[in-house]
Design a protein that fits this description.
3-stranded antiparallel sheet; alpha/beta; 17 helices; TIM Barrel; binds iron/sulfur cluster; 2 domains
Length: 372
């Protein structure tokens, strides 16, 4: 489904979260007014060559914290300038504290397809250290209100925030399931120049995670979420070219981090299959599509399996006989009841090798010591 994004950097933010630089990530220094929004929508529409319906998304800041007349202006700019027959709905990102009975009532007049809640963590201490404008309680309240109003919502979660841990991140994934989110974005914390987090890093109050540590957390969260039927729609931030990268001071950035995470998931599935069959050489019937999933990013899965002395041969079939969602479900040992399985919390020894791999090292940027 096509989404036309409109960026409103830092719109109505009550404070600056320590990790956030929306000017950098959106490439904008100001919030567009409605005439600019109308021009942007016109440009999107004239370049869109498909019969498929689209959605318009207001990203950045906290949409529901805007003054009601401003929200109304933006929403009506969309509704009055795009044909109803083409528009599937409007979505926006907002903070949990902005979801109140009043704002939810306001939404009931409009075709809202999704509210994306910027949650980042369910842990009170992590939220405080990150400078978030809401509490953990606000998240549950927002989810309750949206569920009661039957408004679909997604959740953004982050790994590697100050004070966070693998355990807190797994619990956050479990909580996203339990509050009824329909989709999720997962972002490892990156440190950008000029943010509060850069200051914390320089003062020794924060240590950026490596890319391997980020993957250790992300693959488990992915399994918990997808294994429970919640779509993970994106993993990792998309940085544009050298400009954005110059402002990246530290943190687990990799342009294909989502693929690295999926490769790790594929490896875990194959490892599980081999452990069950007690066989280190397996012939696996897969479709072409499944084969590329099980091969992984730059044959990463093969390399990890090789490290375990496991050899998997693929036999291409036209119709899938392998139930990938069932395998995901089998990996998802901690999705119910908030119970966290020890095996999920303690990354196995076998990943020490991955930790020191060249690919991982060259992807982990940590420039802090070389910059003024
Ligand atoms: S509320 Fe969202 S947009 Fe505003 S500073 Fe925090 S992360 Fe950035």
């Amino acid at each position: 489904m096509k989404i036309f994004p409109i960026f409103l950097p830092f719109a109505a933010c009550k404070r600056r979260c320590v990790f956030c630089d929306e000017f950098l990530l959106t490439g904008r220094r100001n919030i567009p007014d409605t005439s600019e929004v109308i021009d942007t929508l016109g440009a999107f529409r004239s370049s869109y060559r498909s019969d498929e319906k689209y959605q318009v998304a207001f990203y950045g800041g906290s949409f529901l914290s805007l003054e009601p007349y401003v929200m109304k202006q933006y929403i009506e700019a969309v509704l009055c300038n795009l044909p109803e027959s083409e528009l599937e709905g409007i979505r926006f990102s907002t903070t949990p504290d902005s979801v109140t009975e009043k704002t939810v009532n306001f939404l009931s007049d409009y075709p809202v397809s999704l509210v994306e809640l910027g949650v980042q963590s369910f842990d009170e201490g992590v939220l405080t250290l990150a400078g978030r404008p809401h509490s953990a309680r606000d998240i549950y309240k927002a989810a309750d209100l949206l569920r009661s109003a039957e408004i679909d919502f997604g959740i953004h979660l982050m790994t590697g925030l100050p004070g966070s841990s693998l355990e807190k991140e797994l619990l956050a994934a479990n909580e996203a399931v339990s509050v009824g989110a329909s989709q999720c974005r997962l972002n490892p914390t990156l440190v950008f120049r000029g943010t509060g987090l850069e200051g914390m890093l320089r003062e020794g109050l924060y240590k950026a995670r490596s890319i391997e540590e980020a993957i250790d957390s992300l693959w488990r969260m992915y399994v918990v979420l997808e294994g429970s039927g919640i779509k993970v729609i994106r993993m990792g931030l998309c940085l544009n070219g050298d400009g954005d990268l110059d402002d990246l001071v530290a943190g687990p950035y990799h342009p294909a981090i989502g693929d690295l995470v999926l490769s790790r998931v594929a490896f875990e599935m194959l490892f599980l299959l081999c452990s069950r069959s007690k066989n280190k050489a397996v012939v696996l019937p897969v479709t072409q599509q499944q084969r590329s999933f099980f091969t992984g990013h730059k044959k990463m899965v093969e390399r990890l399996l090789g490290g375990e002395g496991i050899r998997v041969e693929f036999q291409i079939v036209d119709e899938s006989v392998l139930d990938i969602s069932r395998l995901l479900g089998d990996l998802c040992v901690c999705a119910s009841g908030g119970e966290v399985n020890e095996a999920f919390l303690n990354p196995p020894e076998r990943f020490q090798e991955l930790r020191s791999s060249h690919e991982a090292q060259c992807c982990c940027r940590n420039h802090v010591s070389s910059r003024p």
